[in-house]
Amino acid sequence: MISACQRSATISRPNVSAIQVNVKIERFDQELAATRPQDILENNRVWQAEYTYFYPDYMTKILEIGSPKDSLYVQHVLTQVLQKKDFQDLSAAVAKVYPDMDKYEAALERAMQYVKYHFPEYVVPRFITFVGGFAVQTSVGNDYVGIGLDMFLGADSEFYPALIKSIPRYISRRFTPDNIVPRVLEAILREDIYPQQHGDVNTLAHMIYNGKILYAMDCVLEDVPDENKIGYTEAQLKWAKRYQADVWAWFIQENLLYNTDYLRIQKYFTEAPFTPELGENNESAPKLGSYIGWMIVRKYMEKHPEMSLQALFAHEDAQEILEGSKFKGK
User: Fold this and answer.
1) CA 44 → CA 41, 49, 78, 101, 131, distances in Å?
2) pTM
3) Contact 270, 306 (CB under 8 A)
4) Which helix (H) or strand (E) element contains residue 12?
5) Residues 6+ apart with CB under 8 A from 181
6) What angle, 0 to 180 degrees and rounded to 10, lies between the N-to-C axes of helices 318-325 and 288-303?
């Protein structure tokens, strides 16, 4: 039986060195930045063949400039894009921060070995980098995961302050190189391996779903701190740990566990600078529903070490997981 990772003070990891995985990050961002106007028609033809699913998605969903099948239109529009100073400056910044992707290839390859250990049938996708004008950080498609390098330039990048109205500081502070691997793996888990089922689900179900995702990140990511998995600052993680029992008691007291009013409960799972109802001086951690769910699932798996990650994902009864965890806030 494939066992889940064991998490106590440390994780006892399976030996995955024999699992054959070859990760090569393809630099579409460099190919596009190096394209001259006179090369666009030919490159458009080549890219449709080489980047079969990614390239149409990039053109229609990320850049939103139209289908590459309309070659003359693409030639016109891409010429405009490539000649814009904003695009050139952004591409230059990406090239400076990421002259190569060797470190990230190695980290992703290691993570994908763990993914294949826990999910042997999973087909490792292509990894393709792009510049998307801050449209999307990671993009999961038919056979690929796209990595928007313009959204991993570093918290102090000169570009992000100008985006403050659309991308608040509490989000852009995570646009750092060390977030590439956790954000890619989170996208794979949420969108490829274990997408959340839609429908009226209560707070507890949301907690357990997000807790499973974060626990899976425990299992597949080496040397990634917990704050990077959930997207906290060090101070937010410290706050969440300190007040964990109080937060759990508050969820119980407010009768939130079985509440199905999405507008009421979504604030405990979405990005925010803090949780308005909890803590003083806006110092509380956000996404406390996800954090508590993570702690519940960790407790559950400590008590069920024989359970595989696949079996955990297949276990859809959130109430049974809560009861089996014996979680009481600590």
Assistant:
1) 5, 9, 10, 24, 16
2) 0.94
3) no
4) strand 11-12
5) 104, 107, 108, 111, 221, 224
6) 60
Query: How do the pLDDT tens digits run along the chain, 330 residues long?
Result: 445 565 444 567 899 999 999 999 999 999 999 999 999 999 999 999 999 999 999 999 999 999 999 999 999 999 999 999 999 999 999 999 999 999 999 999 999 999 999 999 999 999 999 999 999 999 999 999 999 999 999 999 999 999 988 999 999 999 999 999 999 999 999 999 999 987 679 999 999 999 999 999 999 999 999 999 999 999 999 999 999 999 999 999 999 999 999 888 999 999 999 998 888 778 899 999 999 999 999 999 999 999 999 999 999 999 999 999 999 998
- Find where tokens 């049974």 sit: 320
Rounded Cα distance, 294 and 273, in Å: 19
Residue 55 tokens read as 């390239």
- For residue 5, what are its two tokens? 């990772």
Q: Which residue has the tokens 């064991």?
A: 6
Write down the residue that tokens 């740990």 correspond to. 241
* DSSP-H helix ranges across the chain: 28-33, 40-50, 54-57, 71-83, 85-97, 102-118, 169-172, 180-187, 203-220, 226-230, 234-242, 244-253, 262-265, 288-303, 309-314, 318-325
